[in-house]
Each structure stands twice: as C-alpha cells, then as structure tokens.
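stage 2 :: seqdesign
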C-alpha cells in the first residue's frame, strides 16, 4: 500500500497532517507497521545478547540519520505551526528538535567514533546518560503534545518558535552538563557501565524511559478523535519502545545484537513522520498544481464569458441605438404624416368652393361677353362667387381652429424630466450629427400644466433643428439646453446651438409658415411649435448668438389649470 495515498483530506483543515482525519486505510497501514515491529522484536529477543563485531561507523551513520531526520521533521512541523498556531504542534516540533540535538552530542561523546573516550569532557558514562535523556525527552514531548491538543497560542509564530528553540537548547546543555560533570565519579548520577557490562542501574533508569514511551503510546491510543499525526506518532512510539528495550534493557553491553537492532528501530522511528510529511508536501504540491491548472481554465472560461458578455452588451447597445434612431425617424415620419394629412384635408375641404368659384367665374364672363351683357345674371353669379369665397375662408378657419384649438390633455409636467427624456430619445441623432449635448438645469423647478406630447413635439423640433443647423459647421458642435425660473412665475427653456444661425429676417418672421433655411424642409415646424406654446399661455422667441449659432427660448407659466 502506498503511503502517499493513505491520508486524503477529510475536513476543512485536512491539508495538514496534524488536522487531517484518518480513514480505514490509514488505520490499517499504521497497525500493520506496528504489528511488523512487534514480530521482528519478538524474533530478536532470543538473540539479543549475541555479541557482534565492533563498528563505530555504524553508530556514526545511525546518529547522522537520526539527526537529519529529526531535525528536518522539526523544521516542517515548525512551519505548519506558523500557519495553524497549535500549541500541540509546537511541542512535538520541539521534541523532534531536542531529539536531533541530543543525537548530535551523543555521537560526539560516543567512545571510538571521534576519540577513544569521546571528545574532551566526555567520560565513560556520558554517552549512556545522553542516550537515556534522549530516549526519555522525546516521549515527554509527545505526552505534552497529547495533553495540550486543541489549544492555540496568542504569541506570534516567530516569538513562540524562538522561545521553544531556546528552551530546547537549554535542556540539551543541562543534559550535557549532567552527563559529563554529574556522571563523573557518581557525583549526581549513578554509573551505568562497568568492566563487566551494563550495571543494574542501567535497567532501572531505562525502565523509566520505557514507561514514558508506553505512556505516550497509551495516551495517543485513547484519544477520542484521532488525527493522522496521532497515528504516525503511535507508530513512532512503538518503534521507540522496541529501540529502548532491545538496545538498553534486554542486552548486556554495546555492539551485541540488541544494540544494533535497537538502533535500526531508532532510525525507522525517526523516519516515519518525516516520510509522511514529505509525501504530504508532495501531495499538496500536486493539488496546488491541479488547482492552478483549474484556476487557469476558470480564468480562460471567465475571459471567454466576458468576451461574450461584451459582445452581448455591444449588441444590445447597438440595438438600443437602432431603437432610438427608429424612434426619432418615427417621430419625424409622424410629423410629416400629420402635415400630409392636414394638407390633404385642407385641400379636400377647399377644392369644392374653389371649383365652384372657377365655374361661376367662367359663367360670369360668358354673360358679360355677350353683345348685350346680362348684368343682372352676372351680378347674381358674382354674389355666388362671394359666397363660395366665404365658404372657403370658413373652411380654412375651421381647420385652423381644429388644429390650434383642439382639446388638450393637460397634466403636471416636470420640464427637467422632459428635457432628459428628449436627450435620451435623440441620442442617436446627436451621434449621427456628431453633436455633444450639454445641460444646465435648475433643480426643484415647479411643474407646469401642459400637454406632455405637444411639449415633446416642440422640444424635438427645436433640438433637431439645432443639430441640423450644425451639420455643415466646422466649429465644435454643441447643443446647450438650460432651464431656469424667470420673473412672473415663468419657467424658461433655452436651446442654443453653434450652427449657421438664423437667416437675415425680422425675429418674428422666422415663425411664419414656409420660412426655412433647409433645402428639404417645408418650413412649418417653427410655426406649429409657436402655436403650441402660445396655446399653453407661453411664448417662443428666437435670436442669433453673439458668436455663432442661434438660440430658441420658450417660456411656460407655472401652475395647474
């Protein structure tokens, strides 16, 4: 079974070994390793005191591997603590640091590795006592890990790690002092080795280490909620027990089978958590790479969706522009249609009396052209012509009255809202003529009582006239619309352009019918506009600007009829 696949993420913090919950596969793997260690241990017990060849190099390799593995494990656990702030994680990291440092000084003091009696300051008991402190200190750290789990530190990670490192180094120095000065001639500590081999004190003292390791294993086993780190520390403690029992309790001296077997157990104990942490980091890197790949895919999808959305927005904007253009064209066609209908009605109504007048005039001429003119007949026909003229005049007056005096649907109208509405409606026209529309509207103006549709027709006519007047100009094309409150409770709306200006005519004559400066215009728009404004009780004026263009100003009374 692959260890790399044995710890999937089970919860929200499962990215870390100390937080991931184990599954059945992980539990089976750890129990299998413990069972194997027990079987090998039982196989070694009958031969534990068989003396083998002396090999200080084996001791050097063992301590070097233990130092490297424990130190690397402590660094990784310190790194995880800086993220999780778990006190338990900090304590077990400190335990691994203590084990790595003790392995170093125990190697320096071991006889025959660097010197016959160890480095200066070491005595015959030093290496044994350092091994006792080493094998007892790490289980104490594991016990502290179990008892303090679930608590977080308020200290900053760097301060907490620095404190633990200082405490560990102090403990290592105390152990060195005790194993050198304290063990010399039995000052503080009893002798563990004599000429015949290990003394009885060796087994008594190592029994304490065995109890500590067994207690750590028991506390880990009895936890209600196990984490993956708990399972692997149980494996470490089981191998740690085998190491102590074989190399320091059942054997009789150095370099026997128990000595070598116990140290192999020790190397394995120092390697398990490191191996799992390394494989955990490898898994996390794979997940990170997969997440980065998915993120790039999502980014590409978002980019594609954004492009589609941009096209959709552009399409909708184009559709809105087309709609405004169509609305403007519809308004223009509606005006022309209304004018055509009015002209057709006027022609239809007037053609009858005009036709009668022409016929009567011809008849009158015939009566007067005879050799003896029939004056009475001619007079009678002339009277008929006068009646037809009166009828035509009445027809025109009636149509004019219908056009100007029809009943209006008056309602309260906010002039500023009406201006904004027309600016939005004629936006496409402004773009087509490259005209920028600026406004200066006085806020909180009172409403006027008016026919909203007719006021829109007037504003549309004035704004379109202004845009068309600037179509051939080279100066900045600006349509400036203002609203303000003037004297006598009047609201004034001005439409000012930078076009060609008004023709050289009296100011009021520009509002006469069929007066225009545009080649394709009939010339009745301003006339109709003035009629509408005057029907509302207001006035419509026109004047040239001082610099360029023209200004049209309409005034409307405030109030509701």
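stage 2 :: out
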């Amino acid at each position: 079974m692959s260890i790399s696949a044995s710890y999937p993420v089970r919860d929200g913090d499962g990215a870390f070994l100390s937080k991931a919950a184990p599954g059945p596969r992980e539990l089976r793997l750890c129990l299998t390793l413990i069972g194997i260690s027990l079987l090998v241990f039982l196989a070694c017990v009958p031969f534990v005191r068989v003396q083998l060849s002396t090999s200080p190099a084996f001791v050097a390799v063992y301590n070097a591997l233990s130092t490297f593995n424990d130190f690397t494990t402590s660094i990784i656990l310190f790194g995880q603590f800086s993220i999780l702030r778990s006190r338990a994680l900090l304590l077990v990291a400190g335990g691994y640091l203590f084990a790595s440092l003790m392995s170093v000084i125990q190697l320096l003091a071991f006889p025959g590795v660097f010197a016959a009696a160890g480095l200066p300051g070491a005595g015959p008991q030093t290496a044994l006592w350092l091994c006792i402190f080493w094998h007892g200190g790490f289980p104490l750290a594991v016990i502290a890990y179990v008892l303090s789990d679930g608590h977080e530190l308020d200290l900053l990670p760097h301060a907490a790690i620095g404190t633990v490192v200082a405490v560990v180094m102090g403990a290592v120095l105390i152990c060195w002092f005790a194993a050198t000065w304290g063990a010399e001639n039995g000052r503080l500590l009893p002798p563990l080795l004599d000429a015949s081999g290990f003394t009885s004190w060796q087994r008594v003292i190592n029994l304490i280490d065995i109890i500590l390791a067994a207690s750590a294993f028991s506390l880990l086993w009895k936890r209600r909620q196990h984490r993956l780190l708990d399972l692997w520390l149980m494996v470490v403690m089981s191998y740690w027990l085998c190491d102590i029992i074989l190399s320091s309790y059942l054997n009789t001296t150095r370099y026997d089978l128990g000595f070598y077997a116990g140290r192999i157990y020790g190397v394995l104990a120092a390697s398990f958590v490191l191996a799992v942490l390394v494989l955990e980091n490898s898994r996390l890197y794979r997940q990170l790479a997969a997440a980065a790949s998915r993120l790039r895919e999502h980014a590409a999808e978002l980019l594609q969706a954004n492009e589609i959305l941009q096209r959709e927005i552009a399409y909708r904007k184009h559709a809105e522009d087309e709609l405004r253009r169509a609305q403007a064209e519809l308004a223009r066609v509606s005006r022309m249609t209304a004018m055509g209908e009015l002209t057709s009605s006027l022609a239809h109504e007037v053609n009858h009396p005009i036709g009668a007048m022409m016929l009567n005039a011809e008849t009158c001429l015939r009566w007067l052209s005879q050799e003896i003119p029939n004056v009475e007949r001619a007079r009678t026909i002339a009277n008929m012509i006068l009646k037809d003229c009166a009828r035509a005049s009445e027809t025109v007056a009636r149509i004019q009255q219908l056009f100007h005096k029809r009943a209006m649907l008056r309602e309260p109208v906010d002039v500023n809202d009406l201006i904004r509405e027309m600016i939005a409606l004629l936006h496409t026209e402004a773009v087509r003529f490259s005209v920028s529309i600026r406004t200066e509207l006085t806020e909180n103006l009172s409403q006027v009582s008016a026919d909203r549709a007719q006021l829109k027709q007037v504003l549309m006519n004035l704004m379109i006239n202004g845009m068309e007047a600037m179509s051939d100009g080279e100066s900045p094309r600006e349509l400036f619309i203002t609203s303000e409150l003037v004297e006598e409770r009047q609201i004034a709306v001005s439409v000012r352009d930078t076009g060609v200006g008004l023709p050289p005519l009296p100011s009021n004559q520009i509002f006469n019918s069929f007066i225009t400066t545009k080649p394709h215009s009939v010339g009745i728009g301003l006339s109709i506009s003035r009629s509408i404004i005057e029907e509302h009780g207001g006035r419509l004026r026109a004047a040239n600007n001082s610099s360029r263009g023209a200004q049209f100003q309409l005034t409307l009374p405030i109030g509701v009829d």
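stage 3 :: structure notes
- The first helix runs from residue 24 to 44.
- Residues 1-12 have pLDDT under 50 and may be disordered.
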